[in-house]
Each structure stands twice: as structure tokens, then as C-alpha cells.
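> tool_call: predict_assembly(chains=two)
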Amino acid sequence: MGSRKIQDSRQPIESHSFFGEMVATRDAYGAALVELGRRNEKVVVLDADLSGSTKTVKFAKIFPERFFNVGISEQDMIGTAGGLSLTGKIPFASTFAVFETGRAWDQIRQTLCYSDLNVKLVASHSGITVGEDGASHQALEDIALMRVLPRMIVIVPSDGFETKQVIDTIAEYTGPVYVRLGRAKVPPVMPQEYKFEIGKSHIFNIGRDATVIAIGIMVSFALEARDVLLKEGLDVGVVNMSTVKPLDTVTLLQVAEKSKFIVTAEEHSVIGGLGGAVSEFLSENWPVRMKRIGINDTFGCSGTPDELLKLYGLTTENIITAIKSAL
Amino acid sequence: MTTTIQSRDIEFLKEQARRVRIEILKMLTAAGSGHTGGSLSAADIVTALYFYKMRHKSEDPQWPLRDRFVLSKGHAAPLLYTVLALTGYFDIFLLRNLRKIGCPLQGHPSSKLLEGVEVSTGSLGQGLSIANGMALGMRLNKIPSRVYCLLGDGEIQEGQVWEACMTASHYMLDNLCAIVDLNELQIDGKCSEVMRIEPVSSKWKAFGWHVVEIDGHNMEEIVQALDETEKIKVKPSVILARTIKGKGVSFFEGKVEYHGLTPTRAELELALKELGENG
């Protein structure tokens, strides 16, 4: 059995890039994990009874000996992942973002970050677009919780194409990483020549009147808003700051120097997330007028993703209004 | 292979445990803060692990075939530091700088700062999950090493311990041995009064573990238990070690206040005398 597995892993791998596809980032993750598992024997995957939703089930079916379901016990999952990393494995531990970062925060702090363990936390179901499950399942604080931890890398991919690259990249990086994925399908936004690097954001363009710095699903809304405003004669730019930590301060200074106004846009609390990080840096280094678009210090509720995005002010229209009212 | 330990080996281990206790007391007196009671209660067990049972190389702390030790009750750091120093991981003089600024001997163990410490601990309840992960990883890597994890009895009030208990049993981690230091005391008082943990033995049995109950200060029983658990297949083992907090120093024994108090200079002198050492 063992030798057959080795042969399988040597077969040429057809890679699925997800370029140009309307796909949920969690689906791109599930597929990327399988490819990664074929290439790299060290990759192991853990889940806490949500493998069908986080899409780690695809890996589980092909590599059952390298998949560990710990049941509904997120704290134990983090510790077990930490222990596996100490034997040279590269563990990917997945569950919903709200449970991964909230329920097991102390384990992430004490076991993973303080010991600097090589564990990848890849959480699905972040943000308000979780939808009908409601506030208990919508992680609106996870970026803040992870960003505050020393040694932690925080990445929020915007589409399936970027997600695939993020997963490949973090497998080569040594140390704790948090990747925030979503449940809902998202439109493709990243160009074909795009190559993800930790800590490097993608500048679509920088606008003299305003630039929107966005992550996740908000990148597509920012691009739509930009196109509407360009037609109205405003010079508006968009940056995808998919690595929230370490912050791409080089790009931030570039944007702050050229843009009169900066909007941050995220499917997360305005406290402690991307908006928080950008404000902290710019207020000390290059103060510029800003507006943070995000969840305004409140819990979510049940509804369809589209209804919720409207209700909480996370739409193309909200970005347009924010820019127009500032200029 | 069966190991039959000679009586002179038991005497050797007892002597090592005595040295370990002496160094713990000296370092804690020098530090002026730290956890005396829980370091002394587990001293015999951890001595047996490092001087008898575990395969490890102080000259090669990352030796891939080494057995691993996870100090889940991280506040017993003085005990871990002492056995590491006495088995050659670092100079014994470093013990005098426990808890001092710039010293790798932190109040609770940091694996980033000190070779020989497998993983940082201090927030209770997390070590057994880590040990499980190590045991799973070794099994995948086809390495015949074992993982030992020391927990406190107050510590098993943490829910994560029981999550990890299920995981070890579910994955049949027979390369894992947990040891619970049952000294019956925690910071706020007796475990039975703060939060009852008994019946401890039937709890672990119910979770599918092989349970061995011993006197945690009887070196023959400790050695026998460690040898026995190595032979158990398909399930994880736990050694429930009945101990006395502050063991070895009459005026610390069973005293709840010596959880986090260190000896005064005068107490150290008396303690060293009791341990047969002229301070």
C-alpha cells in the first residue's frame, strides 16, 4: 500500500489555478490542499468536525493517514497541530474562523506563537457572508485577535486564484500563519500575472482623489466603485492588502503620499482589523484623511449574504458614498 | 526486551532525586519567587524519566530519535531546569539566574530560549494535546520514540485535558504516557475543596486509558510503572502518582502556601540539612 502511494505522489500533477473563476475561497483551499498533499509528504491536516464545510474533507479522502479529525474540540486541535509540527510535519488546522480564533485563542497564543510553531491556521466562514447561521457563527473579530499576537502572519485572500497561491506559499514559510477564508462564492479579481508574496499587497492603481485599501470580498466591491467613480471623473485607486500582518508599509506610504483620501474596506469589525492596522501606521507616519468601512462594533444577524452586506453597509454603493462625501 | 533494574540503580536514582531537590531549593531561594511545592512533589518522577527511562542526548537536544517530555504543569519549571542541567544540557550555574532578566530560565519554560525544553508551557491544560500531536507525528514518521507528559492534579480541571484524553484514546496512542502528579493541593486550597477531581482513576479508565496507580515518591514503583506502560499496546497509558506537595522538606510538605512561595535563607539551611547536605 505504501509503495503505491509513493507512485501516486510522483505522477505529474495537474494544477488548478482557479484563475478567473467565481468560487468560494474555501473551495479553492480544499483543492489546493490536495495538490499540496501530493507534492509534500510533510503536510498533515486537522479539522474539528467541520471538514465538509472547510473543504478539508477532500484531503481527508485522499490522504486518510495524514488527516486527523479531533471532533468538536478546537483547543485540542491547536495543541495537537502544535505537537505534529514539532515532529517536522506541516499541519494545516481548519474550522470556522469564529471557533478557531475565539475558542482556541489562548492555545494559539501560548502553544503556537510563544513557541513559534510551524502551524497553518486556515479558517473558513469568516465575516458577515456566513449568512443564515447568524451572529454566533460570523467571525467579525478574528483579524484583530490574530493580528495582536507576536509572530503571527495574517492573510486574507480575495479570490480563489489568490487563495491557491497563498496556500502554496505558506507551506514554504516556517512559523504560525492565519488565513481567513469565506463561505460564499466571490468573483475573480486578481490578474493572471499576479504572484502572491507574504507582506506584499497588490496595487491595481493609486488614485489622486482617493484609494480604497481592501481585503477579501471587499476588493471586488472596491473595483466596482472605482469604475463608477472614474466615469464620473474622479481619480480613484484600489489596493488589495491581502497580508494584514506584516503590514505592507511601503505601499501604504506610496498611497498616502499620492491620495488625498484613503478608504479601508473589510468584512470585519472596524476595530482592530485592516482599518485599525492602516490607521495605526499612517497616523504615526503619514497622517491622511481616512474612512474605515467595516462592521461598526456590533454583532451580525441571520440573513442572506447579500442582504447582510447591505444591512451592514459593506457594498459598492457604500464605498462610492464614502468617497463622494469626503471630496 | 525486559529491563530488570538492579537495586543499586534504584539507589542511584534516589541519590539523583536528592540532588535534584537540593538544586531546586537553592535556585528558588536565589530567585526569591517560583513554585516550590509542585517542583518537589514531581521530583522523583522526573528524575526517573531523565536519568533512567528516556532516551535523550544533551549534546544533541534535537536528536530525532529522542523520547520527548512535555511539562504540561509549566510552573514546575525549576524541576525541569534542574534535571536538564544535571543531565548536561547547560551549565548548572545558570540555575542561579532563574527568573532574572536576560536569563533563558524563564518563570515558565520557553522552548525558544532554552534547548532541551520541547515546547513552551505555563498556561495549564495544553500539554497533553501537544504530546498527542508529537505521538501522532512520531507514528507517521515511523520513529519508535515515546512521549511523556506531566500534568498537575489541579490542572486536570481544565477542559482541554479531557479533549486531549479522548484524542489520545481515539487514535490509540500507545507511544504516549501521561503522568499526573496527584499532590492534592492547588493554589486556593485542597483540590477536593476547590473543585473535586476524584475519582481520578475511573475517569481515565472511562476515557479508554491504561491506568497505573503508584506512590509517586517510591522509586521502585515509578520505575516499574514506566517499564509497564512501555509494553501497553493500542491504548495510551497514564501513571497516577500519589505525591506530597513540597516532598523532601518536612516543613513544606502538604503546605498549600508553598505552592508559590520560595524558601528563606534560614529555611534553605534547614531544608538542606534535612536532605543531608551541609549548606
